[in-house]
Amino acid sequence: MRTITIQPKALTHNLNQVKKLAPHSKILAMVKSNAYGHGVAAILPALQQADGIGVATLTEAFEARQLGWNKTIGLVEGAFTADEWQQAIEHDIGCVIHHKPQLEWALDNIPPADSASRVVWIKYNTGMNRLGFNAEGVITAAKRLHEAGYQLILATHFANADDHDHPLNAMQIQRFTDVLNTLKEDISADIKGSLCNSAGIVNFSAHHHDWVRPGIILYGSSPVIDKSAHELDLQPVMSFSAQIIALQTVSANDAIGYGSSWTAQQDTKTALVSVGYGDGYPRVVNADAYVTVIDADSNQGYRCSVIGRVAMDMIVIDVSALSEDIALLNSKVILWGDAPRVDEVATHADTLSYELLCRLSIRPKRIVDPL
Ligand SMILES: *Cc1c(COP(=O)(O)O)cnc(C)c1O
Q1: How far apart are CA 272 and CA 243, in angstroms?
Q2: Which member of 12, 210, 215, 273 lies 3.0 to 4.6 Å from 30 by CB, making a disulfide possible if both were Cys?
């Protein structure tokens, strides 16, 4: 059976790792895109020690409220229309304000004094050049919002925080710090700051400010290019598995699968595994791609290469090195989890763990382990 198993305990562990890295900051745990593919309902109970959650759409925010999340919700792209701004107020959602139309909606329609929507995340474009005001615009907007009774968090987003030495990081930090100091001096010392995603939390510990915004690190994947999830003591929250559905021996010089892209150099024992791109396993992987076959008796794992093209419903693996009582019909096969980690699969597929996690299909069965 194709199965996605979620371990909420691992998420709690990773959240505690973030707390150790950023002990003086509040935590806005990012749960956008269905909690990076893990399922919001599955992971919210493990986030009770977070100070808030971050989402990208109002629908995601409503879902979290419906599931009983009654703490802070930050809407990272803000409202898309004046009507959405009104709906955000009705659900006590804290919006990002990143451009003039959102500023005007906020000034025209001020939430009640006790509403959580009185806190806004005002976005400063420090070099990502997607969302946000420039330095002058952010100062003007902050003044007007402050006068209208809003509490402000100055926010920006790193473009290259995964690479500690990228020159834009120092520039973004400098611009952010300068404007935050200006706002504190000229408007209010109460104005807060939020700069760091997961990679920023790991790489820039001197710049955590009031709120950090961890995403991928919570799910157990490394956010930085020079340290593995293992080195950061992160636990994988998701385990993606399937099973062996047939065994074969392919003769030397015979090719396997669509396009006959892989040819056996010698007689090769193969196993068919019931997973493919129709489940969310990447269609294109390189020769390093492997899975782990689990021996049901000892629970021990054996590494096997993925050979031939990944199809919609199946892959082929090389089980030549395994004894016949290990590679059995119905043996469990780990696509990602403890080994390989999703980060390794992402490398084999020339993409990021983020994408692999978010693009899983609805076909695999989902299991949530107890917290
Ligand atoms: C998604 C997101 C994050 C989290 O990013 P990670 O790289 O997953 O830690 C932080 N801040 C904003 C604004 C985001 O949209």
Answers
A1: 8
A2: 215
